[in-house]
Amino acid sequence: MGYKFGKNSAKKLSTCHIDLQRIMNLAISRSKVDWGISEGHRPKTRQYQLYLEGKSKIDGYTKKGKHNYKPSLAADIFGYHPDLATRRKLAYDKTTLSYIAGLIDACAKELYEQREISHLIRWGANWDSDGIIDYDQSFDDFPHFELIKP
Fold this sequence. Notes:
Elements: H1 7-13, H2 18-30, E1 35-39, H3 44-52, E2 74-79, H4 84-90, H5 94-113, E3 120-123, E4 144-148
Antiparallel strand pairs: 1-2, 2-4, 3-4
């Protein structure tokens, strides 16, 4: 089936590193559920606000986050549906985001093996990449994906 990013998601993705753009564009084209990019580059002021709200462990000033680079080394996603009531249920639904995460990870590995990108991806619901999702971390961030060097 496959989807493509809407105007707002494409604009946010354009603030990201080219490897992240390639991964996300391939993943959305192969996805059986629609989704979007909620954030790419993040100014320090927004980073600090998220820190104060407990939504980030990084304040952007004493420590720079992957979103704070230009181009951004991270992107956040959300599940999308045209019906607003359904969208509100799916946007940050862990099952939906887990499906998308598997797709993003597979696309990153494929592009890396084909030498089309130089990074792999790390998902915020499995920071340590041990295969245990959600249960063994002090801070889970299901919408978050960031580039890592293999």
